[in-house]
Design a protein that fits this description.
The protein is α/β, with parallel strands linked by helices. 58% of the residues lie in helices and 9% in strands. A six-stranded mixed β-sheet has the order 3-2-1-4-5-6, with helices on both faces. Helix 2 links the parallel strand 2 and strand 3. The two termini are 35 Å apart.
Amino acid sequence: MKVAAVFPIGTSDGGCPVAIAEILKREASVEVHLLYGKRVAPDAPDPKDIAEQIKESIRDQRVSWASCQPVEPFDLSEAYTQVRVLVAGIAGRNYDRVYVGITGATNPVVTSLFQTAMAYLSCQVLPIYVQARGTALVQHFLASDLRDRVTAEGALSTARSGQVRVAARLAERLPSEDQWKFLRSSLAALAQWDDFDYSQARQTLEHQARKAAVYAQRPLLAPVADTVSRLAPNASDMAAFAKQICDQQNFSAAATSEGWSDRVSRTGMLLVADALANAQRRIVEGRFTDSVLRSYRAAECATQMRLLAIGIHPSRPDACQTAYKRYRAADAPGGGEMAFKAGLQFLASARQIDFAPIEEDVIKLGSTRNHTYLEHGYERVQLGQAQRCFERSQSICQHLLGADIKQEWQSFEMRF
């Protein structure tokens, strides 16, 4: 266990030797950092001399003196800047625990030390207080618990805004233990899921789901535990099915296997539902263009599921010759990649769907998508447009997959 202590020194020792003695009751050894201010008057004690006296007075071999540095005592901005540099150096030493003196020196120095230690040290931080009146009273408390709670709340607030990957990065500052490990791991997996990376998210989600019941009783973590518990049961099937769709070489064998159509209907709907939930998160996040693209993708995905169910691969329609010969119209073009609208027209010509009820939604959804900056145009998508595209996508998905899709996509909402 690597332990440090940091003490601000003023015109007296501020109880520093007493605090070090108290620390050594709990720790095998300690590396001590001192910071001292400048002398305020010619007849006042020099804090630098006090620091040297402290070092001379403590001969315990368990104490090593790591640094002794001057700091501006009165200008808060300058004091903060200098103390921040000191704390950055301490952070680089990879201590497991750091005691922080909150008595001695001036208020700007003490305030800066406490703030920077709480903000920039990822290890345990224990402020230590010495009341030097009569019998010295030493108290300390684990302030890093409060720091971790603030970090967790910040990460969850960011996740609620739809920025799941940013939230996962913020949560990386949490310790790898107990509830914080659960939150760190869960947010990392949910960020992968938010990026449609089911194969990467699957294992972590399933692992965290086994712990979710414990954290479901804690108000701060209950929404995350609920989200993990809802997504995890479908993760393996969705990852495996997405991988199977990518395997065009073996598609014919899959499409002619027993139960293929039912599997597409069951698992394919989950992929579509998740795309819709993802589009909704982008609206919450304020990324309206991205939401439109995801709404378009959800409707296209629903179309692809209807094609896959009858053995037609949208990227290579003739991959399964049996299905292709059965459903291809005599005057239809060759087996090139089938885009969204072309897929719908193929389904209509194969008498699998009635295209007319959704044709207007398809045209308007495609038009908005095509005119965005991320596709072929220069339009900046606004909130109302994103919401209308989401509604059009829902209508198309319901027409193709049934009314249950609305309930399904809501089960993929992420709650934080």
